[in-house]
Fold these 3 entries.
Entry 1:
Amino acid sequence: MKICVTATDKNIDAAVDPRFGRCPYFVVVDPETMEFKAFDNTAASASGGAGIQAAQNISDKGINVLLTGNVGPNAFPILSAAGIKVMTGASGSVKDAIRQYKGGQLNETAAPTAQAHASMAAPGRGMGGRGRSGGSGRGMGGGGGAGRGGGMNR
């Protein structure tokens, strides 16, 4: 069995990173021997779709179980389709997360636990819009000066 844990560093004593798609590293652990291998999450710096890319990356590695803090709605279906059990709420170190899993302290997640981030394609109110001021476009003054001054050149 291969258990993948989202982590802040490349070792078993690293803290669990609660972000699936944006975690810097994945630590893959054999829960029987506690032997591990770590690899970079190449999707972490993606401008968009990090969860989707991360899900594809770990599904290619033959992972059986994912331990993380949260997983979003774009990554979750990919993980499910790959047959990867998603366990959320992991905390502490990678080693602690493995113990939590083996001790039955984590629950399998049947749905995404994080919302989609407002990325490039998300609709929103934005900053644009039509102004509602009825200004005449002549600047601050009304232009009604009498012009009686002689100026500076007397």
Note: The mean pLDDT is 83.
Entry 2:
Amino acid sequence: MKIDLSEGCFKVIMTGGEVQEPIVQVVTLKKMSTASGQERYRACLSDGKYMITVAMITAPVVDKTSEKGIPKYSVIKLKRYITTVINNTNTSNNKADGGRVLLMLDVELVQDGDEIGEVIGNPVSYSVATAQETREGSPPAKMRKLNGPSNSSNTNGESSHQDLNKSMAGQMTHPITCLNPYNNKWIIKARVISKTPIKTWSNSRGEGKLFSMDLVDESGEIRLTAFRELVDKFYDQIEVDKVYYISKCQLKPANKQFSNLKNDYEMTMVNDTLIEECHDDTSTAPHLRYDFVPIQTIPELETNKIIDVIGVVKSTGDLQFFNAKSTGRELRKKDLILVDKSNAAITLTLWGADAESFDGSNNPVLAIKGARISEFVGGKTLSTLSGTIVKTNPDMKEAYVLKQWFDSEGSYLEANNVSARSAGGSTFVTPWMCCDEVYESQLGSSPAGDYYQMKGAILMVKSDNACYKACPTPECNKKVIDNSNGMYRCEKCNQEYESFKWRLLCSMNVGDWSANQWVSMFSSEAEKVLGKSAEEVGALFESGEPGKYTEFMEEAHFKEFVFKCRAKNEVFNDEGRLKTVAIKVDPVNYTEYNTYLIECIKELTDAS
């Protein structure tokens, strides 16, 4: 298959012009690392006639191109890209490219490099001199200048002072990821994803105020902070989720103690700072970006680290009022318990107005950007800061999957709380009870349910509806409807599938020396009791030999386990009833259990 590259296109692109969706070849692609942790690649590209070595592409763009990324020698279409001039010590020695960098924002794989295996044509290194010669003539077909003469930038990235003060719209913009302290002639076009309230301070050196806002464009994100009189000038002008042109700010190394944005730098407004709202099409400007951390991994992270996390609010504490020791100012806070699919829970503290207005009823999903990790009595907790963004029930796939898991299964499970206080190196355990104590204690009145553990034996397994055909998608366990045509419909997903998966939902009578009770078990725990997977049980159920199926179920009788249970009162047909779910089932460890019994005997002996 012959591939036609957009021969000579780099002569226009690398001097500020534009070519409509050029076809180029990736000669090399090397991963680069940054202090912010954002993965980027540096590429050497060829248009068949000229080669450039100053092309950049981010890891997410590479990953979405194909399953194996962009192999060497691949031919790609540049669907969206920008060029920018960087004058710093790292690029000043690269005279061939004039300090201009090509940033690829969206690409399409035309042909896999493994199928080509070599460089197409005989390209030579691009030079500015050659490009200038071309620009004096007529541009090639399908090529046009990016900027008209009224708002053009020269090849050193400089725009006239007069143009900047009139309007920044239409002028060449600079990617956020390419900002650096060595070049102060730039304009960025970015969306404001958050804005902090105005904070004031007073100390021996004087008084002041500040606010910060987080910005994002197609290449990355950065924080911008204003102090003193610039707060009055810009605070009311800036609105969250709007897009602005911004120029003339001071760059300095980012303070990672207060930010988890993936950028080595942050910006500060100065007297010459220019900010202008963008009234053009802003659909390509991205919105909020998250880098979620599973709750179960938080204990491994260092204290004071700023992270993003998503979880379901399992419980909400009361609003608390107290005075700060240093200033005497009244503070307000509210503690929440978040849980995620790793079945780990953590305490999150909201402050101020967020704490006062938060409603945790109906177990909402929270997506939090920029929470700080704290340590308390051996456990890890999370706390919001002034720049933390908290979204309730956000419109995102992760939130839907998490809520579905919680409603179908997670709310019944006892999560491992990484914020739990420790005693002797281990967290406090679930209380032991016998069946009779469960009835006498009238468990189940708590909104989140009551938890206990017991040692008991399986007395009976209801085999009639112990397994069912469920939606085959990993996120859904809803029972499907057999359409009798080889297809199975899931009402929850509103989809039809050619297959299904077996799920267990067993009701078992569990007893000990004092009494017995009915306990429900989901697949993971029922499989431990039955000794077979849900698929194996389902196959036996449909084998056409009911006798074998019943005999198999009876094999579980009189087997002993330790059951960790959740008891909760529920209303069914206007009648209250106690529903008990075994959230964890383990074989009896008689060494540990006997140790527990001996401790109980000692307590009774000492008490008498």
Note: The first helix runs from residue 10 to 13.
Entry 3:
Amino acid sequence: MKHSRRALNKEKSRRSILKASRKLFSDQGYDETLIEEIADLAEVSKATVYNYFPDKDSLLIAIVEEVEEGIEDYLEDELAAETNAVDKIRRVLTELVLASLQYPSLSRRIVFLNSSRTSTLHGTLNEIKSLLKQLIATAQSDSCLSEEISSGEILDLLMGMHFIALFQWTGEDIASAQDQKDKLDRLFDAIMQQYLSPITCDEQ
């Protein structure tokens, strides 16, 4: 029992540190945030932060992994219940974009670092991208999407929507999650319309 309680306390501390890091990185910037500030907000000691995360980069990596795990956990049941292959793609992209827009400035930094081969965050979005590419390939094999363009190229277009949302969506017109989802749906439909198979999933 003591071991179990200790494990729960450790996990609680870790999550508190990540939550504090995400807020501070978003509110005041990654470079400007000090480990001491993270420890204060998480209500743990500075030594405890370093016990879990040796530096700020490791915190950033853990934040990305936590977001990916949250998306994957949410989608596990959602995708199983969804029968339309294209709608499965829509769900994954929607969850990625909405999760990123909760902390836009932090997400922009992650995307930037993810693109740099010398960064410790290079490739951190690979699991989500791999899932999307797999769903695109399945949609093509099910004759839902045209095979005239490769799954990789369609993936590039969809990830481009993620970048547009992060770097261009501002203002009160998309302030709410529902507004963001509605706009994303319109863009997704416009792109998918170009690549839908003449025989769509719903007609099979």
Note: The chain is about 75% helix and 0% strand.
